[in-house]
Amino acid sequence: MAYVVEVTDLTKTFRPEVFGKPVQALRGVTFRVNEGECFGYLGQNGAGKTTTMKVLTGLMTPTTGTATLLGEPSGKESARRRLGYLPENPYFYEHLTPVESLQFYGRLSGLTAAEVTARTPALLARVRLSDAANRRVRGFSKGMRQRLGLAAALVHEPALLMLDEPLNGLDPSGRQLVKELILEERQKGRTVFLCSHVLADVEELCDRVVVLHGGVVAREGTMRQLLDSRPQSYEMTAERVPADLAAMIRAASSNFRDAEGVVTARIAGPVAGPEFAAAVQAAGGRLLALEPERESLEDWFVRLTSANPTGDTADSNVAGGARR
Amino acid sequence: MRDRIGIVASATFREAVRDRVLLIVLAFGVALVLGSRVLGWLSVEDELKMVQDFSLTGIRYLVLLLAMLIGAGSIAREVERRTVYTVLSRDCGRGEFVLGKFAGLVAVFWCSIAGMAAITFVWVAVWGGEIGQPLFLAVAGLACEAVVLTAVALFLGSLSSPALASSGTMVFFLVAHRTEALREMTANGKNPDFAALYQVLYPVLPNLFNVNFVNATTSGAELRWGDLGSGALSVVCWSAALLAGAIVLFRRRQF
């Protein structure tokens, strides 16, 4: 099966011009992106996400290893013909208008002037820039630039959409708009490569993720594979709890509160919560609620990175098909 | 390929003509041309000659200023503002990008020269001068200078900072205008080895003297279009070599 993106043993070392130690930004990164999936590329700042994207978009050459886009080596211009790329904090020619910018990027991607002209109004409406269509980009806010960047990435209807921190600096409505756009593109069958450190967004949008840590793939898998589906804790609310049982619950929990006979407690672990709930009911108490709390991607990511802050031994954490 | 060069050139042209720097430099140039009349009054020489000389020299320095202020920083600005990311991640080669920038900048500079030349021609006509072939030839020579200075600015801009590239462009301009004078100097000098070496190097050194018809025009010398030939050829060769160098350097860059 042909992959939309295929990265094999990619390394990138930045050598200082005169003095200093070389910096290894990527150390044998390997992953693949399937057609039609929304793929999340995660990592802390400095993990090597943007370096990987630059290699994939031909802005940088790897030190060793290979990267292909849509079956062609990423350095080839023709490989980028069907790529829509939104860099982090996109900048545009300041004196051009959005209409002129889309004309420029669309034509660079092989469309005719007439084709771009036909697509422009709908595209600008999609990113809510119709009112600013003929204003120079110079006066645009960060959010407007980001939305224009997205329109420019979409103008030639690429097979692969590569987005580097697309939700950076957006207000809540802007974030919602961009998320909707990404979901729409995914529904159309377009492959989306989403690079971000905002984990809640990735969790919401992506089918599968790769976590990069210290320049190596620390984890790879679907959300279900990565996150423990078992509850990590329970939030229990009950009333008429006997005093001895309440003392036991207090000892086993955090956030214990007893307000006018209504006991609320967070009980850690996947088993203790239901056991205490059963005990309350057996002792004649009334169970009002028992809410399981599952690990979010953010909790998981913090756990992973705090256990191994530098990523130096990330090899030992490789799981779920991740390769070095 | 030609399409993409044209697309980059068109965006470069639009971007440059809307930039305030161009307007300021052009306003300065117009003031210089119109101010040539004042110098004519102060000078003991022929007033019309002064108007022509000062106006055409003004255009030459305007071209240098444009190359230094707009041309030299052109690629560096794209890298700094990261517009280059969105361009090079498309189906656009780095060579096409450099050639597009070159074509766009040359178009801007030629339009500026044409505008300034039109003002000069009107000014010369107002003061009783003849708008003939020598004046057109002088302007064509300036247009040739613009081509090679743009290539120099882009070449230096693709390997160094805008400030260094601007300084380098100015050094090239000064040296290329002294190539002929240096030949005479070395020929009349005391060191025959140095004179012989310079003689060998002379054909390949940048030489803007061959496209400089300002003095000949103002002194009323007979000029023909054929006089532009060797100078224009040298400009083409130098520009091609510099652009090839700029493309090689730009291809090696990591962003």
* Through-space gap between termini of chain B: 23 Å
Low-confidence stretches of chain B: none
- Output the radius of gyration of chain A: 25 Å
- Mean pLDDT over all positions of chain B: 86
Give the strand line-up of the largest sheet of chain A. Answer: 6-7-8-3-9-10
> How is the biggest beta sheet of chain A arranged?
6 strands, mixed
As a percent range, the share of strand residues of chain B is under 5%
Radius of gyration of chain B: 19 Å
Q: What amount of the residues of chain A lies in strands?
A: 25-35%
Helix content of chain B: over 70%
Order of helices and strands of chain B: HHHHHHHHHHHH
Query: If helices are DSSP runs of H or I spanning 4 or more residues, what is the number of helices of chain B?
Result: 12
Structure description:
The complex is a heterodimer of chains A (324) and B (255). The longest helix of chain A has 16 residues, at 172-187. Chain A has helices spanning 49-56, 98-108, 113-126, 142-154, 172-187, 199-205, 223-226, 243-252, 272-282, 297-307, and strands spanning 5-14, 23-33, 38-43, 64-69, 72-73, 83-86, 160-164, 191-196, 208-213, 216-222, 233-239, 253-259, 262-268, 286-293. Helices cover 32% and strands 28% of the residues of chain A. In chain A, helix 2 crosses helix 3 and helix 2 (98-108) runs parallel beside helix 4 (142-154). The two termini of chain A are 21 Å apart. Chain A is elongated, with a radius of gyration of 25 Å. The model of chain A is unreliable at 312-324 (pLDDT under 50). With 324 residues, chain A is of the alpha/beta class. Chain A is built from ten helices and 14 strands. Chain B has 255 residues and is mainly α. The model of chain B has no long low-confidence stretch (mean pLDDT 86). The interface between A and B is medium-sized, with 31 and 24 residues.
